[in-house]
Amino acid sequence: MEFDYIVVGAGSAGCVLAARLTEDPNVTVLLIEAGKKDHHPLVHMPAGFANLIGEKTTWGWSTTPQQNLDQTVYWYPQGKILGGGSSINAQVYTRGNRRDYEGWKERHGCKNWGYDDVLPYFKKAEDNETFCNDFHGIDGPLGVSDPISPLPISKAFIRAAQQVGIAHNKDFNGEQQQGIGLYQTTTRKARRSSTASTYLKFAKNRQNLKTVSSQQVERLVLEGNKVIGVEVSNGNDKGRKKILCRREVIVSAGAIGSPRLLMHSGIGNGEDLGNLDIPVKHHLPGVGQNFHDHFDLYIVCECNADLTYDKHNGLFKKLSAGLQYIFYKTGPVTSNLCEAGGFWTIAENYDHPEIQFHLMLGSGINAKEDKLENCGLTLNTAVMQPKSRGSVKLASNKLEVAPLIDPNFWGHPDDVKASIAGLKLGRKILQQSAIARFLKKEHLPGSSVTSDDQIANCADSFSKTDYHPVGTCKMGVDEDAVVSPETLKVYGLEGLRICDSSIMPEVVSSNTNAPTIMIAEKGADLIRFAA
């Protein structure tokens, strides 16, 4: 069987593309996902993500040893499930800053990707329960809502931030991004709004859409310089088959999966591929380069009472919370466990947020934490415009071997400086009376770790990725660009586009799920208008 379009990867972008392309009844679309269907009930519970980010719903990858952080290997989960990252993330709905998109346009030649160009696609995607104005939509598939019953300590954090001069902001996606407040989340009626449960669900009964899961695309099929289909397996040689397309293959496998697939197909740096005995089909040195992510230093504090969601640990308490959710759609399960946060600058006269805060309402959400005697909270502080650049490369020509994921955290001295300043600002907030009266002590980094050198020397023990990888198939007009900003077609090849977070030339100053959905909305229009 042939299809007009084959979409590889049913994640945040792939589900959007499949749904939008099949709005035209005259085209057929095959959507292929390596992971399983999103049937597990925890996927749809907002708090469920804390128990989902394991190998059953992710690829189980880790970084290479990070040379600037005492050779630390960081766990690097990437969604392997219908809906991808949108099915397992913390559901924080933020879009980035106007200047991010203007930077794409001005610095990378992406002339149709400025803020005014992309805003209509954010609005098109959105069904916002609170806002309906120049910045928000209410008719899109993606549910966006306010926290149902935020904990008092979340509001105490907002007041504490104001005590250090950070303004309160009710809408990070409106006219002004900077400030502190409650996050809106990709939820609707106390259920997660993944792209699988929204876009794909709305389209699933269309006769021109076929979705398959637990099927991995091993390689793209090329005929000369044209991609004509994909080679798919279900984990054994007998299940391997070729599927052809009449128009195009669209790769939407994410910032690691997309370059990985291209390189296994012989598309990438010819020298690197040759060293792995992979036949070079198309030399494109930018594939897998420009890899970067938000790097996070965090503070863990012990509370002096049962003030966070740690109080619901234990089988009986979890069962009680689950029943409350099932019958009433209220209680702790309705929370994304990250109700408050925001954006702020650390340099004077700088109008672009440099730090993002996520107040995580527990101490065990980050994997390295020791169990505290009382409830705890975790304040994540991440640098928004990292200058460090790394790469995604293949370790082997065998598909079952994990790729070499090197974000090169702290590879630029400016990132080190900004990270430490962000941590210190986070500490300053937690020391304000509005929230300090609820805290017993700082567990990590600990009160003895105060100087810049001390923080830098032991940062590996209180740091992680923010799970926002981008850039490995960047769009642009320079020699390292992989796709055209005008079409998202891969340079030098026919019949192949890439449409996901890997095309971002620079990471946006926020979480990346909403911008990835925007990219897919805009990408779908580029494909449809060109057809």
Key features?
seven-stranded antiparallel β-sheet; 22 strands; single chain; globular
Fraction of residues in β-strands: 15-25%
Number of strands: 22
Number of helices: 13
Alpha-carbon distance between the two ends: 21 Å
SSE-based structural type: alpha/beta
Largest β-sheet summary: 7 strands, mixed
**Helix proportion range:** 10-25%
> Average pLDDT value?
95
Low-confidence stretches: none
Radius of gyration, taken over Cα atoms and rounded to an integer in Å: 22 Å
Shape: globular
Walkthrough of the structure:
The protein has 531 residues and is α/β, with parallel strands linked by helices. 25% of the residues lie in helices and 20% in strands. It is built from 13 helices and 22 strands. It has helices at 14-21, 41-44, 98-108, 115-125, 152-163, 196-203, 254-264, 270-275, 315-328, 413-430, 433-436, 452-457, 513-530, and strands at 2-8, 29-32, 126-128, 142-144, 179-182, 187-188, 191-192, 209-212, 216-223, 226-233, 241-251, 267-268, 282-283, 295-303, 340-344, 355-360, 376-383, 391-393, 404-406, 439-444, 463-465, 496-498. The strands form six sheets. Strands 1, 2, 8, 9, 10, 11 and 22 form a seven-stranded mixed beta sheet that branches. Strands 5, 14, 15, 16, 17, 20 and 21 form a seven-stranded antiparallel beta sheet that branches. It has a two-stranded parallel sheet with strand order 3-4. A hairpin with a 2-residue loop joins strand 9 and strand 10 (226-233). Helix 1 runs parallel beside helix 6 (196-203). The mean pLDDT is 95.
